[in-house]
Amino acid sequence: MALSIDQKKSLMTNLIRAEEFNRMMYRRMMQGKLIGFYHPAEGAIAPGVAASTFLNQDDNLSPHHRGHGITHMLSKGIDIKYYLAEHTGKVTGCCEGRSAFHFSFPEHKVYMMSGFIGYNFAPAVGWGFAAKQRQKGQVVMNCSGDGSYGQGRAHEALLMAQNWKLPIIFFCENNGMSIFSTAMEMHPKPDISSLAEGFGMPSAIVDGQNVFEVAEACLEAIARARAGDGPTFIEAKTLRFNEHDIGTPDLSGWEERSEQEHAEMRAREPVTIATKIALEEGWLTQPDIDHMREAALREIADVEAFADESEIARPPVEELMQGVFAP
Amino acid sequence: MRTITLTDAIREAIEEEMRVDSSVFVVGQDVRGAIFPHTKGLVEEFGTDRVVDTPIAESGMYGVAFGAAQEGMRPIVDFMFGGFSYVTFSECSVTTGQYHFLHGSQHALPIVITAGVGTGQRLANDHAMSIHGTFAHHPGIKVAMPSTPYDAKGMFKAAIRDNNPVVIPWHMGIMMLKGEVPGIGDDYIVPLGVADVKRVGSDVTVLANSLQLQHALSVAEKLAPEISVEVIDPRSFVPFDMETLLTSLEKTNRLVIVDEDWESGGFAATVSARVVEQGFDLLDAPILRVTLPNMPVPGGYMEEYVAPNPERIEAAIREVCL
């Protein structure tokens, strides 16, 4: 589905925001200003931006864990300051500082994160089931990595989504790596989307480094789901520039990834690719892009100030006990 | 009052709640054809959008309930046999229990989880295990199990109306047990978290549930000429009505806990520890537990003497009353 210039500009804006937010998270982890761990998204930011930018607020989104879902959530219009506050253990966090890295924005239909890779598949079936019954054209953008498709629950979700023609987009951000293990070793075929064939589900493979190409495929899949024509599998071939999470070694199998591998990856940097396209097609100038980045940096300064100025959450146990059950 | 079976009582609760609340639906495997009688006939009245059969894919099946509950619906998910919940246990225990609390107590997750459980069918471990103790170990999930048709209908209604995940299995050993239940449409609930003194006595308290409650009542009747047995049905394990138990112990000073779960780490162990912590001075004898020994539940003819039974309950009562 061809993109309008406004749509391309939205993607470019969110791509630059995603890049700067990921840098901010990386820096804060190194500074000791994040709780827990961080799985950096450098090199892999385009798929989440493309999948999430054109969703409606009443569409369900399950972000990929890479970048802790920030690239997806900011593209859907979620204010990241509440998530950063959560990730720094503050009372103003989206989960009142209880969850470390888990996010939850029910009003935006980003319900949850679980630490179990592949957790998204089971509830995605339920969201799709509810959306289909409601008949308001809502869709489910179900994002996760190549590794998550090892889970049996992924196959169950594909089965049930196709069987019931649920409005779910199975959006596989295939960076070729699950921690140290390569997708080539862990899967019998090079394309994860080949799974869709077995269920009779339409699928597409796109260049995950090209945000515009991914977005075109997403818009098509979203339109198909909204029309009641069922699920689509999209595989975005992307890359992971950094180690799995900050502090683990950067291995492929049990050996360091080579400098050559890194050099080849970095030649496929998504913002560089998008910038080249924008300038060549002429719908942005370099100063326009510079302004986008300046705006992103101002936004991040506000987000960090909000988190840093908020109080640490340390409620007494008795108070926490009141929150275990809903009234 | 009319008498109906335990599973008919459960079905009436589901039917009546489905009639008044269009967000209530049932999802499971072969719930339309009703492999157990508690879902029989539902599909004829409510259709396949609200009585939903899934493939043999427990995670996906439970996911229908979980995701739909987040979307504001009120699913009843049926695992057929309780042991089958283990196939998707990360979803229905960890992720379910933590959802509300961990995400800042901002979003309720109303799911009813049910299944047939318990010994008596000689089916062996994976088809005979109880699940209430294991679920009770996971915070954020309410756990209850009915012992009579009256309680079954009222407790299922309470569970369906609750805004939390509620695990409410039913014991296959009493599925055809008949009891008095108010007429169809005579609305009542049995609130979760309230125990029931099923028989008043003065010498010893027996805490027992489901099939084992029925065993305890028959033993109490048999022993009536020599020992006065008070029988308490916890009905709910989470939340647990400690007050009713302690009040009983003030009178009897002796406690036998019958629980068709393993001895190690089970609900009986939790209650025993709490009584020692909160009611130590009330006790005139050690607490005795009648539970499953710590072995996988055998099938065949071994089940009847390995599982708690009237003989073992009587022996325990006699021992604490010595």
Walkthrough of the structure:
The complex is a heterodimer of chains A (327) and B (322). Chain A is built from 13 helices and 9 strands. By secondary structure, chain A is of the alpha/beta class. Chain A has a single domain (5-321), classed as Rossmann fold (3-Layer(aba) Sandwich). In chain A, helix 1 crosses helix 3, helix 1 (5-30) crosses helix 12 (286-309) and helix 4 crosses helix 12. The model of chain A has no long low-confidence stretch (mean pLDDT 97). Chain B folds into 2 domains: 3-180, Thiamin diphosphate (ThDP)-binding fold, Pyr/PP domains (Rossmann fold, 3-Layer(aba) Sandwich), CATH 3.40.50.970; 196-320, Rossmann fold (3-Layer(aba) Sandwich). The model of chain B has no long low-confidence stretch (mean pLDDT 97). With 322 residues, chain B is α/β, with parallel strands linked by helices. Chains A and B meet through helix 5 and helix 6 of A and helix 3 and helix 4 of B.
Can you give keywords for this protein?
heterodimer, A: 327 residues, alpha/beta, Rossmann fold, five-stranded parallel β-sheet, two-stranded antiparallel sheet, 9 strands, globular, B: 322 residues, 2 domains, eight-stranded mixed β-sheet, five-stranded mixed β-sheet, 15 strands
Give the assembly state of these chains: heterodimer
Give the strand line-up of the largest sheet of chain A: 1-2-3-7-6
> Strand pairing plus helix content of chain A: what structural class?
alpha/beta
**First-residue to last-residue Cα separation of chain A:** 46 Å
In the CATH hierarchy, what is the architecture of chain A at level 2? 3-Layer(aba) Sandwich
| Averaged pLDDT of chain A | 97
Radius of gyration of chain B: 19 Å
CATH topology assignment of chain A = Rossmann fold
At the fourth CATH level, what is the homologous superfamily of the largest domain in chain B?
Answer: Thiamin diphosphate (ThDP)-binding fold, Pyr/PP domains
CATH architecture of the largest domain in chain B: 3-Layer(aba) Sandwich
